[in-house]
Amino acid sequence: MERQKERIAHYWGQRSEGFRQAHQGEWDSPTASVYREVISSHLSKPGAAILDVGTGSGFFPLLLKDLDAQITGIDLTPEMLEQARDAVKEQGASARFLQMDAEHLAFDGESFDLILTRNLTWNLPRLGQAYREWFRVLKPGGVLLNFDGDYVEADRKKSPQELDKFHASQPITQAMQAEYREILEDLAGGHHPRPQWDEQLLREAGFSKVEVDMSFGRRLGQGPEDTPLFCITAYKGR
């Protein structure tokens, strides 16, 4: 399992600069306003503690820089965290970034009011373990917002040319494509229907209520060629 995570971190480390470039024009776009609206609806008090799991190049800390919140971003990939720190500094935002495994969090229980994650859970080897950890660190009454898609199933069907087209602004080499396809074959998410599997795992983790919005991608302006993006909202009971 650790070898698998090392391979995943290595692959995304090679892609870190491309992701930052891809997200630079997204922070003030109509897409950003949709995310901001959804997230803001779950912030009921100033100074809320937010955990951004799989922060990547810092999309959420930059998106939410004008909100009164304390944001902690974690990622397994050092190169992604470097991009996030640089971007936040350039934009005058504020966030704490830590290298951490999403399946094993180094936080006390009941530490966060809101957990955010985007385009991450498809890429986790042990999704059930991650959901249990996220439930543990949420405060009673806290909320998890998971924006994701069934990328494993979608990307398995793509040709090399399509993979190159759909991956963030940085062309990927044949070696990287081969590495990516090997990773896809090992991911548990590729063997279960999503987001139905997520709903099951979240309830098993202890969440009292789980809602799935399958139309979220359309709200972002996704076209028929895009992998459909869904939004899962999971609530921890008080």
Automatic annotation (TrEMBL):
Pfam families: Methyltransf_11. PANTHER family: 2-METHOXY-6-POLYPRENYL-1,4-BENZOQUINOL METHYLASE, MITOCHONDRIAL, METHYLTRANSFERASE. It comes from the Bacteria. The keyword Amino-acid biosynthesis does not apply. This is Putative methyltransferase YcgJ. Keywords: Methyltransferase, Transferase. One of its GO terms (molecular function) is S-adenosylmethionine-dependent methyltransferase activity. The keyword Methyltransferase applies. GO terms for biological process: methylation. Residues 51-145 form the Methyltransferase type domain. Its EC number is 2.1.1.-.
